[in-house]
Amino acid sequence: MIVRIMGEGQVKLADSHFTELNKLDDELLEEMEAGDAEGFRRTLGALLDAVRRLGEPLPDDALEPSELILPAEDATLDEVKEMLSDDGLIPG
Length: 92
What we know:
The protein is built from 3 helices and 4 strands; from the N terminus they run ββααββα. The chain is α+β, with helices and mostly antiparallel strands.
């Protein structure tokens, strides 16, 4: 799956990593619903770090369609809320 981190670029991520990412996504959703800004910031950073660590960066000139778009690390709680689906940032 091709994942875009806004403001950074794209990474190719194997489907096998989505169990780990979904746990972080669930945690992020809970923190957002609770209004836990500190927890939100920490978990968003952990989620993006996991995508960077587990994924293979695509070249800057690659223009692959992104199947998943994640917010930038400095995104606000309100900006991320606008990006959410019922499943959080990561479907499934």
